[in-house]
Design goal:
Elements: H1 4-13, H2 38-53, E1 60-64, H3 70-79, E2 83-88, H4 91-101, E3 109-114, E4 127-133, H5 142-152, E5 153-166, H6 173-185, H7 196-206, E6 209-215, H8 221-228, H9 231-261, E7 265-273
Parallel strand pairs: 1-2, 1-4, 2-3, 4-5
Antiparallel strand pairs: 5-7, 6-7
Length: 284
């Protein structure tokens, strides 16, 4: 059922973990616009994507790579009575997400699925909105996910992503080695190592009409990198993953930060729409 790449992702993100640490179960870089702590920055990122989607009660949302479910619980608190189907390829994440959701009260529906983002277990034209928070670069491939998201969205449905692309192609042997090492550590398929020009072309090729795209690298990578280096967070990581796992995580974060500091990496907030087949309202 699972591909070799998906099994690698499961091992990468399936370590220990819990949803009651200082990160409150969040796993994104965060959007550090006035936020002074990681969890607030992580929630702000999710909020910005929800706003880009113009979520409102009654929306039917599919969340690909939901992690431990914190972002879905936040969407319900922030935007009201949504219907959310959230999925993740990492079984441990789904177990933690279900445990979190058991304590949930309030309006809306929330269902978790152990499933692949590139083989969504839903019928065509099921959802009004799709969201993917900082995960499409992991999928094998990003294009396969976008085609699936396009399939399960209704005509006029919207998608929003926090995603990572190359600011430019590496020019030197050192830059190529740096990018290659970071991609290997983060389990990013070569097909997903693309520039913004490639990204725009991909959205158009799949059929989406781009609505907005914002580059926010300076408000994501540095804040996350510093938050991960605090003594308190390091102690949490050792407790959750062991010393070896915490060290591997630190190396991954250092590699990503080096690629960003070299001017090679962009963090994007993207929204797009599946055009209406009849030429009517397409959410633009």
């Amino acid at each position: 059922m699972w591909t070799g790449h998906e099994r690698m992702i499961d091992r990468l993100y399936g370590h220990g973990g819990r949803s009651d640490d200082s990160h409150r179960g969040y796993m994104n870089f965060g959007l550090w616009e006035g936020a002074t702590d990681y969890a607030s920055a992580a929630e702000h990122l999710v909020e910005r994507l929800g706003e880009a989607l113009e979520l409102a009660p009654g929306a039917r949302v599919v969340d690909a790579a939901c992690g431990r479910g914190s972002q879905d619980l936040y969407l319900l608190r922030r935007f009201g009575a949504l219907s959310v189907d959230a999925l993740d390829v990492t079984k441990r994440n789904i177990e933690l997400a279900v445990a979190q959701a058991e304590a949930r009260t309030g309006p809306g529906e929330l269902r978790f699925h152990h499933a692949s983002a590139t083989r969504l277990p839903f019928a065509d034209a099921t959802f009004s909105h799709a969201i993917c928070v900082e995960a499409a670069h992991h999928f094998d491939t990003r294009e396969a996910y976008l085609r699936e998201a396009y399939r399960v969205l209704m005509p006029g449905g919207r998608i929003a992503l926090a995603d990572i692309v190359m600011r430019r192609a590496p020019r030197t042997r050192t830059e190529r080695a740096l990018v290659g090492t970071a991609a290997a550590l983060w389990r990013i398929p070569q097909a997903n190592v693309v520039t913004l020009v490639d990204y725009r072309a991909l959205l158009a090729r799949v059929g989406f009409r781009l609505r907005t795209i914002e580059e926010v690298s300076a408000r994501t990578f540095p804040g996350y990198y510093e938050a991960q280096r605090t003594p308190a967070r390091r102690r949490e990581l050792v407790a959750a993953r062991g010393r070896l796992g915490a060290t591997v995580g630190a190396v991954m974060n250092f590699a990503a930060h080096r690629v960003y500091r070299a001017g090679l990496l962009d963090y994007l907030l993207v929204s797009a729409v599946k055009p209406s087949s009849g030429g009517g309202d397409d959410g633009g």
